[in-house]
Write a structure and sequence with these properties.
The complex is a heterodimer of chains A (116) and B (113). Helix content of chain A is 0%, strand content 47%. Chain A contains no helices and 10 strands. In chain A, the strands form 2 sheets. In chain A, strands 2, 4, 5, 8, 9 and 10 form a 6-stranded mixed sheet that branches. Chain A has a 4-stranded antiparallel sheet with strand order 1-3-7-6, with no helix packed on it. In chain A, strand 4 and strand 5 form a beta hairpin. Helix content of chain B is 0%, strand content 50%. The chains are: A mainly beta (116), B mainly beta (113). Chains A and B meet through strand 4, strand 5, strand 8 and strand 9 of A and strand 6, strand 10 and strand 11 of B.
Chain lengths: 116, 113
């Protein structure tokens, strides 16, 4: 079946511009996560959606970052007024909770963001 | 807070050598532990996992045992192949349910023929 898909695969933008990154989770997966992979920081959690609950935004590095998930499926991560330190690979993952035990998260291929 | 520490790379081995990548963790409660692998040009894939103490996860010849007494989850393989060349990430998840993964910084493995 189809895995997690992300678009675009690469994005080059100028400092100060806004960008939107898209994630299509695996059908039926109610949990969706955004992570960031950068050379200096490794893999960092950004934000987590689970069903209709309020998202866990505890990993967002600044108020320039936001995300939404429409209809419990597709998610968009928006970075406003991009800075060079935002350059990284942004990864999306999804999972289907089985109740009480940590479940496998399936990752998309990522979006490589370069801020010039 | 929760954290994962894994051995620094890169690691370079000859084909058929024995592999160990060390991973230790700090967590409250009883986390689940994972090894993810990222092959060149590909996304992160789950390699194996263990959800409670003394569990052994295994896949593709790789093994890791959840050791609560030493807070460790070391990855091992008896005989590596060139195709095992990749970056390996140790991670944990709070056992209270589906929560974000906390990753180690990754270890790059290169296997030469």
């Amino acid at each position: 079946g189809a895995g997690v898909s992300q678009s675009p695969s690469n994005k080059v933008t100028e400092k100060g511009k806004d960008v939107e990154l898209r994630c299509d989770p695996i059908s039926g997966h109610t949990a969706l996560y955004w992570y960031r992979q950068s050379l200096g920081q490794g893999l960092e959690f950004l934000i987590y959606f689970q069903g209709n609950s309020a998202p866990d935004k505890s990993g967002l590095p600044s108020d320039r970052f936001s995300a939404e998930r429409t209809g419990g499926s597709v998610s968009t991560l928006t970075i406003q007024r991009t800075q060079q330190e935002d350059s990284a690979v942004y990864l999306c993952a999804s999972s289907v909770p089985s109740g009480g035990v940590a479940d496998t998260q399936y990752f998309g291929p990522g979006t490589r963001l370069t801020v010039l | 807070g929760n954290s994962v520490t894994q051995m620094e790379g890169p690691v370079t081995l000859s084909e058929e050598a024995f592999l160990t990548i060390n991973c230790t963790y700090t967590a409250t409660g009883y986390p689940s532990l994972f090894w993810y692998v990222q092959y060149p040009g590909e996304g992160l894939q789950l390699l194996l996992k263990a959800t409670k103490a003394d569990d052994k996860g295994s896949n593709k010849g790789f093994e890791a045992t959840y050791r609560k007494e030493t807070t460790s989850f070391h990855l091992e393989k008896g005989s590596v192949q060139v195709s095992d060349s990749a970056v390996y990430f140790c991670a944990l998840s709070d056992h209270s349910g589906n929560t974000p993964l906390v990753f180690g910084k990754g270890t790059r493995l290169s296997v030469i023929a």
